[in-house]
């Protein structure tokens, strides 16, 4: 199996478990979000691709449409609640329902010791890591509760649990995503809604990036610093390689489907090894 190969939308996956399900994927323009949108589409879903970058969202939607997938584009900053509400309203207006919500927006934008962070940068990093997930869940849940059905899949980060170096504000925000997952799961389980979290470890996604995340490092010896940081990071991964966006997308597709059954409130460690016995 070539883990670096981007699968075709027509690649036989041996399942049709998302046929005609209406699925929203945030941050769908690149990385894990793009891979998730493609995987859900390959399993038969109708996909609404949301991204802050119009170019990135357009690329994903164009790919899906070219393969005959029913897909829509939504462009907006999901750190703003009104934009999240507009995204949910679009889904309801066009399709009358939301079957699955994949909250993928996020990603560390700086790597340095916590004491070197400026207060405004801390606030911005935490907002980016938690608010899109928080707001999209809040906007989508009334519709799911009325239908007594829904699948929420949040994308967290193993660094929130293993304290990976030099990204404390990001870890704090993603820690909030893990807590939100379990809280929503407990509240909504009686209504037929599941809420789970895929928590990636180190992931290879740079090759499909349209919008640079802009990770900054200390100017002095930044290359040596990044090499050292990467070595520390890979030391947390039992299989000693980065995960691929397609592996994470497969986990997301399971949690977005009815195969998840009554599994809810779970955080799936994807490569970080935190749950290994």
Question: Would you kindly provide a written description of the structure presented here, covering whatever features stand out?
Answer:
This protein has helices at about 30-40, 55-65, 80-95, 120-145, 160, 170-190, 220-235, 245-255; strands at about 20-25, 45-50, 70-75, 100-105, 150-155, 195-200, 205, 245, 265-270. The model is unreliable at about 1-5 and about 215-220 (pLDDT under 50). The chain has one domain (about 20-270): NAD(P)-binding Rossmann-like Domain (Rossmann fold), CATH 3.40.50.720. The chain has about 280 residues and is α/β, with parallel strands linked by helices. The two termini are about 25 Å apart. The protein is globular. Helices cover about 45% and strands about 15% of the residues. The protein is built from eight helices and nine strands.
Strand and helix map with partners:
Layout lengths: L21 E5 L4 H12 L3 E6 L2 H13 L4 E5 L5 H15 L4 E4 L15 H29 L2 E6 L3 H4 L5 H21 L4 E8 L2 E2 L17 H13 L8 E2 H12 L10 E4 L7
Helix pairs in contact: 1-8, 3-4, 4-6
Question: Which strand order spans the largest sheet, edge to edge or round the barrel?
Answer: 3-2-1-4-5-6-9
What is the correct CATH architecture? 3-Layer(aba) Sandwich
Give the termini separation.
27 Å
How many individual β-strands?
9
Tell me the fraction of residues in β-strands, as a range.
15-25%
CATH class: Alpha Beta
Q: How many DSSP helices?
A: 8
The portion of residues assigned to helices is 40-55%
Specify the CATH homologous superfamily.
NAD(P)-binding Rossmann-like Domain
Largest sheet: 7 strands, parallel
Provide the low-confidence segments as ranges.
1-5, 217-221
Q: Helix- and strand-based class? A: alpha/beta
The whole-number mean of residue pLDDT values reads: 86
Q: Give the H and E element order.
A: EHEHEHEHEHHEEHEHE
At CATH level 3, the topology is Rossmann fold
Count of domains: 1
Rounded to the nearest angstrom, the radius of gyration is 18 Å
Shape: globular
């Amino acid at each position: 199996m070539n883990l670096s190969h981007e699968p075709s939308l027509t690649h036989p996956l041996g399942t049709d478990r998302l046929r005609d399900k209406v699925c929203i994927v945030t941050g769908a323009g690149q990385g894990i979000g793009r891979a998730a949108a493609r995987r859900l589409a390959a399993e038969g879903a109708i996909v609404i691709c949301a991204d802050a970058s119009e170019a990135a969202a357009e690329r994903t939607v164009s790919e899906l449409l070219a393969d005959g997938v029913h897909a829509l584009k939504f462009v907006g900053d999901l750190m703003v609640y009104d934009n999240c509400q507009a995204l949910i309203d679009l889904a309801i207006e066009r399709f009358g329902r939301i079957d699955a919500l994949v909250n993928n927006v996020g990603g560390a934008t700086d790597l340095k010791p916590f004491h070197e962070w400026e207060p405004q940068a801390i606030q911005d990093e935490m907002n980016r890591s938690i608010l899109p997930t928080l707001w999209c869940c809040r906007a989508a849940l009334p519709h799911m509760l009325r239908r007594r059905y829904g699948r929420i899949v949040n994308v967290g980060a193993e660094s929130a649990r293993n304290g990976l170096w030099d990204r404390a504000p990001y870890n704090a925000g993603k820690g909030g995503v893990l807590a939100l997952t379990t809280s929503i799961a407990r509240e909504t389980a009686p209504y037929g809604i599941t809420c789970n979290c895929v928590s990636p470890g180190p992931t290879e996604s740079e090759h499909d990036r349209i919008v640079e995340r802009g990770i900054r490092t200390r100017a002095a010896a930044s290359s040596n610093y990044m090499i050292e940081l990467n070595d520390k990071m890979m030391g947390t991964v039992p299989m000693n390689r980065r995960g691929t966006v397609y592996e994470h997308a497969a986990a997301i597709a399971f949690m977005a489907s009815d195969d998840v059954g009554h599994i809810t409130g779970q955080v799936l460690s994807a490569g970080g090894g935190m749950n290994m016995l």
